[in-house]
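Now for a typical sample entry:
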Amino acid sequence: MHKSIGPALLVLLLAVAGVACDSGERRLEATPAATPAATPAVASEALRLAQQAVNQEAGYRLKVDAQNLVIPQWGGIDGAELKIGTEGPVVSGTIDRTGDGRYQVRFVDGQTYFKRETCGHWARIPGGGRDVLRPFLWTETYDLQDAVDPQYVGKLEIEANVGELGPSRIELDGSSMRPLRLKQQGDAESIWTFDDWGKTPDVEKPSGDVGDQGPGGNPC
């Protein structure tokens, strides 16, 4: 369940408001919220609040549209739809591996399991694959809070260097400070969208004999 971040959000709102004097009375004169004129410090505070908002949720859904976005121990992907639970964390969903088809994936107890859509069995990433989904696990990496060189480029849109993604533009929800959308920029491009906040996926280790392999090659 989403928890209020009211006091911290108030600090941000005050930071992007102008204080003016009129007839001897002090009043807040609202400037366009989160405009390019806002300082990097304000942009950094906004991303800190966004990180806090993500951390406070039980889970969310992430959709990724990409072209050969490289993730650890897996290679390139052209898309993904993942349900992410922040406690653990745990992940369940699908990944489209570049040039290789769609895979079901699960991340539970620090290990990554997968099943190609043409296969009848699950396998484990060799060594456990703890880092395969790391770029998507912001409650583990704190990539939002630790983003480098943030600056406003529009109303509640911030450009910054985000973790392994590098230059990215992040759109935030003005009422909750949760991320709505991320667009990776530069040589590699991907678009991430976030929704279904507050839902924890039910993820269990695949049953039966699960050996280490792949992905890729001839998994079946």
User: Anything to note?
Assistant: The first helix runs from residue 6 to 15. Helices lie at 6-15, 40-55, 138-141. The chain has one domain: 1-220.
